[in-house]
From TrEMBL:
<dbReference type="Pfam" id="PF11913">
    <property type="entry name" value="DUF3431"/>
</dbReference>
<dbReference type="InterPro" id="IPR021838">
    <property type="entry name" value="DUF3431"/>
</dbReference>
<protein>
    <submittedName>
        <fullName>Uncharacterized protein</fullName>
    </submittedName>
</protein>
Length: 244
């Protein structure tokens, strides 16, 4: 009773999903093709649109475990591919400790902390320190209010990038369907562009699914908990991932 939810552009090859996971259900959403069997209503918000669309459309019949992924099998957004290309999304998902996901409710599939930790989003950073290269930080206060209905915005929001994670049904159901519908409506209606609106959610998923605003698990412990083994690379290099 588990599913892989994948967001893709119509020219991206996701055959690896079906070929490698015959024992998983799959839901591959194409964000820019209205003729695709599964698609989003519009191409906005990067992978967040597909993820939220899946949750809203299936809220009453969610499987016990969900894994949300990008379309690429091999890239450095995941945890176990850094320094060893044998460890890609296929290897990571196959090694994933499902019992640990049930126990904790939510896990980021990326154990490497950079980028994202220890203090990626600082909504109240002094204006003279804000960068035009970080529009998601500028937009976070208003986004937080519109999404969560309050101004209790944390001074720091941090979690390893890059919006690939696993969550249990029980954890998803701790929020109402109305809440997820509100998140999706915000994503579709916000004047923020595709990249910025998507990055807002990139650094909110852990909060939506019950973690503290700063959620930066120890890397070695993360590897042990999620995959049953320490990282097979030099942790001191902490190679960062590319931009989405």
């Amino acid at each position: 009773d588990k599913i892989l939810v994948v967001a893709r552009l119509k020219w991206e090859d996701t055959n690896w999903v079906h070929e490698n996971f015959p024992d998983w259900k799959t839901a591959v959403y194409t964000v820019n093709d209205q003729e695709a069997e599964l698609h989003t209503s519009t191409n906005k918000g990067r992978e967040a649109n597909a993820y939220l669309t899946y949750i809203v459309d299936n809220y009453s019949q969610l499987p016990s475990i969900m894994v949300f992924l990008h379309s690429h099998r091999n890239h450095d957004h995941g945890s176990r591919d850094v320094g060893d290309l044998n460890f890609d999304n296929v290897a990571s998902v196959k090694a994933l400790n499902i019992d640990f996901v049930h126990q904790t409710g939510y896990v980021n599939l990326r154990c490497i902390q950079s980028p994202g930790c220890p203090a990626e989003i600082q909504p109240f950073r002094p204006a003279d320190e804000l960068s035009d290269l970080r529009p998601q930080e500028r937009a976070m206060v208003s986004a937080w209010n519109e999404l969560f209905g309050n101004f209790d915005v944390p001074k720091i929001i941090a979690s390893p990038c890059c919006a690939q994670f696993s969550v249990s049904r029980d954890q998803v159901l701790k929020r109402s369907k109305d809440e997820y519908q509100r998140y999706l409506k915000w994503l579709l209606d916000t004047p923020l562009n595709d990249a910025t609106s998507g990055r807002i959610f990139e650094y909110l998923w852990h909060i939506i699914f019950g973690r503290e605003p700063v959620h930066c698990p120890d890397m070695n412990q993360c590897y042990q908990d999620l995959y049953g083994s320490p990282p097979r690379w030099n942790a001191s290099s902490n190679t960062p991932c590319k931009s989405i």
